[in-house]
Write a structure and sequence with these properties.
By secondary structure, the protein is of the alpha/beta class. It has 9 helices and 11 strands. The strands form 3 sheets. Strands 4-2-6-9-8-7 form a 6-stranded mixed β-sheet. It has a 3-stranded mixed β-sheet with strand order 3-1-5, with helices on one face. Strand 8 and strand 9 form a beta hairpin. The longest helix is centred in the middle third of the chain and has 22 residues. This is DUF4918 domain-containing protein.
């Protein structure tokens, strides 16, 4: 049985998905840009070691299946071990370098800040401009509400943003940041609750400065093994 907070988020995300589809019926460019809705790319785990948060889902499902994705259920395994793509391979390499791959494979929850898929961030921004103004505002607002709800409900030991765009969105959720640090390839802070939030720079799907990030992952004080 899924926890109440997850059911609330998934039902809300699906409701907005239905509104986007309704808008697409009146605007061909929305139909072209929008690739569906997916909430999790991993199992749903309580107290995960890592919560991975990207910006929004890409168009991989659409390219492979020829239809939009509509999946608000947890996956059976971490998606990076089910399909091969640049970010997944880069992420596995990063965690291997940190000596923490077992955490990625078995103790990580993967989601995105926005659950509505497009081929890239530019297309997502274009989509928001084309949608009715009130719907765009709701997407912007509830992405923040629901991401914080997931963080508070899952209680991860560490949050990792997959790229600076995702990091900047997450950072807004925590007005009080402790031990804030920033470099060319990595940004981080600790929440008042003691959760480390880390974001790294991406370049065409590649993770920039893996050694620095791997060291940050490796230095994380994890309470349990496995």
């Amino acid at each position: 049985m899924k926890p109440t907070f997850y059911s609330e988020v998934s039902e809300g995300a699906y409701h907005l998905h239905q509104q986007i589809l309704a808008a697409a019926g009146k605007h061909p460019e929305i139909t072209t840009l929008y690739k569906g809705c997916q909430l999790l790319f991993s199992p749903l785990l309580q107290r995960p070691k890592i919560l991975l948060i990207g910006f929004n889902p890409g168009g991989g499902y659409y390219k492979h299946h020829g239809s939009i994705v509509e999946n608000l259920e947890p996956m059976q395994a971490m998606e990076y071990y089910l399909n091969r793509h640049i970010l997944g391979e880069q992420t596995k390499e990063l965690f291997r370098q940190a000596g923490r791959e077992e955490h990625l494979q078995h103790a990580t929850v993967k989601t995105n800040f926005y659950y509505w898929a497009t081929d890239n961030v530019a297309d997502f921004n274009r989509l928001l401009k084309l949608l009715p103004e009130e719907l765009s505002r709701e997407i912007f607002h509830f992405a923040r509400v629901w991401t914080k709800q997931l963080i508070d409900g899952l209680r991860p030991e560490m949050i990792m943003a997959e790229g600076f765009k995702a990091y900047d969105e997450i950072a807004v959720l925590f007005p009080q940041k402790l031990q804030e640090e920033s470099s060319g390839s990595m940004r981080s802070f600790i929440t008042p609750e003691g959760v480390k939030v880390l974001g790294y720079k991406r370049n065409q799907g590649s993770i920039v400065g893996k050694e620095l990030i791997a060291n940050a992952i490796n230095s994380l004080s994890l309470t349990t093994k496995g």
